[in-house]
C-alpha cells in the first residue's frame, strides 16, 4: 500500500524525468487514493516544473528535457482534469483566452481554460503565440465579456499592454474586462498596464471572472 506522500513524490519524479507513462500512472493512483486533482496539477505539478526551471537555469538540462517534462505534466492533466471540482456559476459569460504573441508556454493557459469552462463559462481558446490584434478582433466578433491573456516570459508580457491599448483605440476598452496572468505577471504590473485583474492561478481566475462580469453587466447594460 503506497502512502499519499509516496504517490506525490513519484508523480513529481515522473514529471521531472519527463516520463509520461509514469506521470499518468501516478496521476491515476492519486485519484484512487483520494488526493485532490487540482492540487496535484498546480501544487505538485507546479513544484516539479520549478525544479525543471532551476535545472534549466543551471544548464543541467536543456530545452528537449523541459519539453518532455511539460508533455508529462500535460498528459497527467488530461487524467486529472475530469476529477477537478469546480463550483458552477450562474453568470453566463464569454471569455476570449490565449497566450500572447511570441510565447508558446500554454500549460497555465490550458489550466485556466479547464477551470473557466468547468465553471460554466464559454471559453473561446485562441491557443498560444496569438497575434495581438486577434484578441481584439475575436472579442469584437463574439462580443466577449472578458479577454484573458497569459504570458510566461518577460519578453512577451508587453504584448498584454499593447492589446489593452488596441482595445482603447478600437473604442471598446470599457465593454470588456481584461485579466492577465502567468509567472512573471505581478498584480502591480497588471495594474500599471490597465488590466482589470491578475488572478494568481487558474482557480482564482474563476471567482475574479465572475465578479468582473457582474460589474461589467451593470456598467454596460448588456449593450455591445
Ligand atoms: Co520555457 N521558459 N522556454 N519552456 N519554461 C520559462 C517560462 C522560464 C522562466 C525558464 C527559466 O529560464 N527558468 C524562461 C523564461 C525567462 C524569461 O521570462 N525571460 C523560459 C524560456 C527562456 C524558454 C525558451 C526561450 C527556451 C529556449 O528556447 N531557449 C523557450 C521559449 C519559447 C517561446 O515561448 N517562444 C521555452 C520553451 C519551453 C518549452 C516549449 C520547452 C516548455 C513549454 C511547453 C508548453 O507550455 N506547452 C517550457 C516550459 C515547460 C517552461 C517552464 C519550465 C514551466 C512552465 C509551466 O508550464 N509551468 C518555465 C519555468 C517557470 O515557469 N518557472 C519556463 C506550470 C504551469 C502550470 O504554470 O504557466 O505559470 P504557469 O501557470 C500558472 C500561473 O502562472 C497562472 O495559473 C497557473 C496555475 O494555476 N496563470 C494564469 C498562467 N496563465 C494565466 C492566465 C490567467 C490567470 C492565471 O488569466 C488569463
Write a structural description.
The chain is α/β, with parallel strands linked by helices and 224 residues long. The chain folds into 2 domains: 4-83, Orthogonal Bundle (Methyltransferase, Methionine Synthase (B12-binding Domains), Chain A, domain 1), CATH 1.10.1240.10; 94-220, Rossmann fold (3-Layer(aba) Sandwich), CATH 3.40.50. 56% of the residues lie in helices and 9% in strands. The chain contains 9 helices and 4 strands; from the N terminus they run ααααβαβαβαβαα. The chain has helices spanning 4-16, 20-32, 37-57, 63-80, 107-118, 132-142, 158-169, 187-192, 202-220; strands at 94-99, 122-125, 146-150, 177-181. The chain has a 4-stranded parallel beta sheet with strand order 2-1-3-4, with helices on both faces. Helix 7 links the parallel strand 3 (146-150) and strand 4 (177-181). Helix 2 (20-32) runs parallel beside helix 4. The N and C termini lie far apart (58 Å). The relative contact order is 0.11. Bound molecules: CO-5-methoxybenzimidazolylcobamide (B1M). CO-5-methoxybenzimidazolylcobamide is lined by residues 42, 46, 49-50, 52-53, 56-57, 63, 66-67, 70, 102-109, 111-112, 148-150, 152-155, 179-184, 199, 201-202, 205. The site of CO-5-methoxybenzimidazolylcobamide has 39 residues, from helix 3, helix 4, helix 5, strand 3 and strand 4.
